[in-house]
């Protein structure tokens, strides 16, 4: 049981007694209750009262031992946002400067949907209004999805790259390509798949590595059971080149290029030769999708439209 020292009322818990004291006898400033369940003496209470401050935003009292000006983060944000508010004169000045800057870069275009002329400050605008843009997007032909499966570059696990503009899935294949080129044999990468049943009876496609002088060639350093099924079910003649056949080719390639590691000769991308769509000059680049030989030709082609 706990008794209030001011009025003598008895309470079951000290929390109820402390709440009664703060509501009824706060003005006496004799003792008060804090969260750590201790009664403060008069000197301690006066020290705590001296730290009571007023919030600069909501003007409510709060106790803080730090040099804080606001009772909460919300009040602090309100004060900061209010101090940064712009006047009408500042807003008008900003809008005038933006309009003047946009007027210098205005582009006159024709709407792709309705054909009317409109003005835009960006080069990416194709339509004069949102309605026209929605109609134009619906009138476009849907993109044709590429079929699943088939031959894909970089689908192996070995050292991959381009050697003499032919893709290699391993260093063994690079050595074989060098051997064919040195002996003036016509070699190209095979992209056609041939069906075969795997060990579980499922139908899969087998892609031999190369076509050399109209003959299929497979370069294998290690022959697995699935590889044996591929070759046994292959409908045409195929020549398998194993590890013992490739080792002298690897030595030949290293001696010719004076390289210790063949992986240093493999390039990440292939050099493609094309004709520029604007000036029709022939150029070579690593990027397949590049249409113009220079940025000047691409800009001139854009303004030509």
How helical, in percent, are the residues? 25-40%
Strand content: 15-25%
Q: How is the largest sheet built, in terms of strand order?
A: 9-12-13-14
Number of strands: 16
Helix-strand pattern: EEHHEEHHEEHEEHEEEEEHEHEEH
Mean pLDDT, to the nearest integer, reads 78
CA-based shape:
elongated
Describe the structure.
The chain has helices at 14-24, 42-49, 73-83, 88-104, 130-139, 171-182, 225-232, 243-257, 295-304, and strands spanning 2-3, 10-11, 52-54, 61-63, 107-110, 117-120, 161-163, 166-168, 187-189, 194-197, 203-206, 210-212, 215-219, 238-241, 272-275, 282-285. It is an alpha+beta fold and 305 residues long. The strands form seven sheets. A four-stranded mixed β-sheet has the order 9-12-13-14. A two-stranded antiparallel ribbon has the order 1-2. Helix 7 (225-232) links the parallel strand 13 and strand 14. Helix 6 crosses helix 8. The longest helix has 17 residues, at 88-104. Residues 27-43 have low confidence and may be disordered.
């Amino acid at each position: 049981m706990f008794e209030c020292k001011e009025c003598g009322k008895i309470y079951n818990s000290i929390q109820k007694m402390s709440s009664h004291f703060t509501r009824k006898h706060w003005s006496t400033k004799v003792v008060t209750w804090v969260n750590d369940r201790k009664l403060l003496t008069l000197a301690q209470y006066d020290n705590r009262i001296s730290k009571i401050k007023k919030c600069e935003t909501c003007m409510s009292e709060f106790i803080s031992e730090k040099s804080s000006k606001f009772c909460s983060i919300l009040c602090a944000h309100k004060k900061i946002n209010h101090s940064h508010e712009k006047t009408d004169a500042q807003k008008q000045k900003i809008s005038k400067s933006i309009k003047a800057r946009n007027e210098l870069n205005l582009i006159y275009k024709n709407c792709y949907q309705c054909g009317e002329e409109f003005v835009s400050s960006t080069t990416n605008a194709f339509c004069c209004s949102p309605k026209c843009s929605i109609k134009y997007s619906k009138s476009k032909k849907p993109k044709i999805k590429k079929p699943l499966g088939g031959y894909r570059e970089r689908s192996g696990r070995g050292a991959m790259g381009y050697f003499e503009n032919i893709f290699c899935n391993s260093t063994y294949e690079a050595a074989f390509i060098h051997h064919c080129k040195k002996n003036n044999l016509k070699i190209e990468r095979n992209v056609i798949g041939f069906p075969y049943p795997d060990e579980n009876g499922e139908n899969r496609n087998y892609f031999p590595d190369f076509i050399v002088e109209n003959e299929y060639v497979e370069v294998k350093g290690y022959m697995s059971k699935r590889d044996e099924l591929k070759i046994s079910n292959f409908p045409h003649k195929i020549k398998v080149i194993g590890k013992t056949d490739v080792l002298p080719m690897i030595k030949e390639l290293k001696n010719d290029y004076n390289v210790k590691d063949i992986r240093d000769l493999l390039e990440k991308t292939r050099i493609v030769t094309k004709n520029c769509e604007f000036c029709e000059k022939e150029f070579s680049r690593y990027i397949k999708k590049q249409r113009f030989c220079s940025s000047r030709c691409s800009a001139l082609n854009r303004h030509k439209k």
